[in-house]
Every structure is written in structure tokens, then in C-alpha cells.
Design a protein that fits this description.
elongated; 6-stranded mixed beta sheet; about 35% helix; 11 helices; alpha/beta; about 300 residues
Length: about 300
């Protein structure tokens, strides 16, 4: 089941095309990462997804409902945090959740449910001003979970967190997808964390989607074997299509083609210390796709 579908989204402001023909879909129970450098069109896309701005062209379907034509029905399927969670620090966590629950007609049982989901039940009656940043982020997610949304949209949920807080958010998002069958759309600049958290990602650059697919497929698309030898310059002369990367030799082959190369190097008197697949990280793939621009 497709929970969110963006169809040919375009946003033009003045003579600038901010988002240019962007399309993607998110399945039920999937964590989807949305990546791009500063100014790539991420925030503009997110604002169109949640109805904060209207697209110049294209449409958004949420649980099959057209966002423009069935706005209220579509929005009932969404829980979202765009930028910083809007919390009242002088109030307790419970009071914050109760404030938003009243808008949705949700009762105390719903507050207890979402507090339990984000592991905050034991601190719910303490003032939010005493919470750590990670706890405030989790409270914001609890707020977004009020009303049983089928789709959770989060903009930089781990921003500013320490490693322990980042891990908490990662585990929370994975559990929501796995145990609640919730679809999670997450924008983040923490590429290593996206690699650990997401099932699929899309990379947007200058308003257009450059790459989209499963994390596993994207980072394994550049197949190569890494050879560590005692004479990398001489080895590069002997092996076809090999490139030197610092103290190692990279050869664009599958693992099954490595033994003959090892044999040839050994016959030439070159000592082979290590042979292993060279796995491209999401960060390396991102920098390659965007021409070296940093994410933000």
C-alpha cells in the first residue's frame, strides 16, 4: 500500500524553479530518507507535502487522497514536525500533549499511548524545560503521533542530538515502521544515520531527484574489489582498469573475478595482503551524485 505519493511536483517562484518535476512514493511500513545540499529544494518539497504551500504543478496523494481536493481527509493521515517541535517549556510533557490532543478530540488514553511509544511515560509530568534535547525531540514526535497517523513526516529529527540521542531517535523510527506499520519520511543531513535508519532514499539536487532507491542498492551500485599489496604502482600496471586510491588498488569487478587477479599478482612477485569488496558509503554516493556539494 502506498501511503504518500508525490506526482511531478513543481514549484516556481518568480523566475526561479525551486522544485522541478519531483516524483516519489512511500510504502506502508517504510522509512524513506530525503537528502540534498543546502538550497536543493528539500524544505520546499516538504512544505508542499503537508499543505503549507501550493505546488505550481503536480499533486500530492496521501493514503490515496488528493491533498488539494481532500485536504482535511488527507491531513488526518499525517503527523509531522517541520523544523523545531513547537513545545511550551513552562508546561509539563503531559500538559503539552493534552493541549494538542484537545484539537484532535483525543483523550488521556491517547496521551498515555504516544508517551509509551516514545519512552517518555516516566517523565510526562515533569516540566519540558527540564528535558534534554533528545527528550524534547521525542515529545515532539509523540505530539505528531496523536491521532494514529499513517504517515510521519520529520524534518531533521536528530538535529543537535548527541550520539545517544541520535540512536534513540533511530530506534524509535525503526520501531514505528516495524511495529506500527507506519510510513516515515525523514529529511536529514546526517548521512551515516540515514544509511542506518532508512529503507530507501531520494537525493534531490537543484530541485530535481538525481537518484532514488533502496539504500542497499544505491551503495552497492558501484561494484569494485579492493586489493592491498606491497607494490601498488606495479600492481596497477598489471591489472586492467585498476585505479590507485592511496595505498590500495581498486578494480571494478565482482568478487568472483578476484582469484585470477590474485594469482597473476603473486606470479609477478607482488605480495597480496588483503582482498575485499569495496563498499561505497551513502556519503560517498551522495557526494558523487551532487558533484561534491555537502548536505544540509
Amino acid at each position: 500500500m502506498i501511503t504518500l505519493e508525490a506526482q511531478h511536483l513543481t514549484k516556481i517562484i518568480g523566475d526561479r524553479t525551486i522544485v522541478d518535476d519531483v516524483s516519489f512514493a512511500i510504502e506502508k511500513g517504510e522509512v524513506f530518507g530525503f537528502l540534498g545540499p543546502n538550497g536543493a529544494g528539500k524544505t520546499t518539497t516538504i512544505r508542499m507535502l503537508v499543505g503549507l504551500i501550493k505546488p505550481t504543478a503536480g499533486r500530492v496523494l496521501i493514503c490515496g487522497h488528493d491533498l488539494r481536493r481532500e485536504f482535511e481527509t488527507a491531513m488526518r493521515c499525517i503527523g509531522c514536525i517541520v523544523e523545531t517541535p513547537d513545545l511550551y517549556r513552562f508546561m509539563s510533557g503531559r500538559e503539552n500533549l493534552a493541549h494538542f490532543a484537545r484539537m484532535l478530540g483525543a483523550g488521556s488514553a491517547e496521551i498515555e499511548r504516544v508517551a509509551s511509544l516514545v519512552n517518555l511515560a516516566h517523565r510526562l509530568d515533569q516540566r519540558v524545560g527540564t528535558y534534554s534535547l533528545g527528550m524534547r525531540q521525542r515529545l515532539g514526535i509523540a505530539q505528531a503521533l496523536l491521532g494514529h497517523p499513517k504517515l510521519l513526516i520529520l524534518d531533521e529529527p536528530a538535529n543537535g542530538l548527541d550520539p545517544a540521542g541520535i540512536r534513540e531517535i533511530r530506534e524509535l523510527l525503526r520501531s514505528l515502521a516495524r511495529e506500527q506499520s507506519m510510513s516515515v519520511f525523514v529529511s536529514s543531513h546526517l548521512l551515516a544515520e540515514i544509511e542506518l535508519t532508512c529503507d530507501r532514499v531520494a537525493i534531490i539536487h537543484k530541485g530535481r531527484i538525481l537518484r532514488e532507491g533502496s539504500v542497499r542498492d544505491l551503495i552497492s551500485s558501484q561494484r569494485a574489489m579492493e586489493f592491498r599489496v606491497n607494490d601498488v604502482q606495479r600492481a596497477a600496471e598489471l591489472v586492467q582498469n585498476a585505479t590507485i586510491d592511496h595505498d590500495r588498488l581498486l578494480v571494478p569487478i565482482d568478487e568472483s573475478a578476484a582469484p585470477p587477479i590474485v594469482a597473476a599478482l603473486a606470479e609477478a612477485g607482488i605480495e597480496v595482503y588483503r582482498v575485499a569488496p569495496n563498499k561505497q558509503t551513502l556519503e560517498e554516493m551522495f557526494l558523487e551524485a551532487t558533484g561534491g556539494e555537502t548536505v544540509g
